[in-house]
Amino acid sequence: MAAPVRSVLPVVLLGCGGVGRHLLRHILSCRPLHANQGVAIRVLGVADSSSLLVADDLHSNGFDDALLADLCAAKSAGSPLSSLLSRGQCQLFNNPEARRKVIDTASVLGKTTGLVLVDCSATYDTVGMLKDAVDRGCCVVLANKKPLTCAYEDFEKLVSNFRRIRFESTVGAGLPVIASVTRIIASGDPVSRIVGSLSGTLGYVMSELEDGKRFSEVVKTAKSLGYTEPDPRDDLSGMDVARKALILARLLGQRISMENINVESLYPSEFGPDAMSTKDFLESGLVQLDKSIEERVKAASLKGNVLRYVCKIESTGCQVGLEELPKNSALGRCYESAPLVIQGAGAGNDTTAAGVLADILDLQDLFHKTA
Fold first, then answer.
1. Residues contacting 11, CB < 8 A, separation 6+
2. Does 146 qualify as catalytic in the annotation?
3. Catalytically annotated residue among 75, 213, 244, 369
């Protein structure tokens, strides 16, 4: 028997790519569990890069589960959100009307029943909406790292009410990296150094290379498994790790920007997005990197080491790149002489979406049952 509903969390989702769709599926599959916990998640709107599908009545129960399931299927098949209009329950807003409608929704619900704006996109374009939502008393949950790595003033704005923002999945997918760092900071323990393999994607790639597999094959497999960003170069460039490092460094109080981080890319500039399409990179660029990567893996192996893509955050600066490490070494967050090691699944749409759902539920005490 379901418990009485104590908390209702109205949600608007920005981004219905791999992570966004997995989040919706998690919400649907966890309905019985949440009912037993007295929690209800109402999905009032879902946006992709061009439009927003929003419930007709913002004070209703939101989209029914059948519509959400159809929405996931439609987006997986490449269909537009407009294909769902015939189902009723909703209305469609195209950009730039979509942005205004998100803000209108935040205005209506932010200071009354409340709203959780969930960003599962991969763009900087959501920063303005997120800041407006904060001004209207809304909560924000992020899988998208980019809003937290913009200008420092934007970061300050977004975290100005720390109780109302959650971004665990921006750094470790489903791992409690952010929570661990913030808890230790809050307890008064100074964190002098963070060392980590912050990319589950590159962790997977480097581990697979130890078995003698070609770099190009491993990257393509990682992409097919949903471990990489839509363009794998966002991972291979080191920029995804650099964004995570910047978020952690800012949590430690460092007022730095991306330009302050030394980043080693795993491909040369002539293979970059400005010179080569994603399709061409996957089909002809990647294979040209196999030999150089293989030589570095073998060089490390001859010394009894493995190659890892590592992030180091210290008071003297931030850097990310390849390092040779003892095979049995542990990478994690270190302070004083006793390291706290956090390890586990750190990549994949499903894992990231599960972390986003946990972040949403972590806000439930801020919400109450509505009439």
1. 41, 42, 43, 44, 62, 115, 116, 118, 360
2. no
3. 244
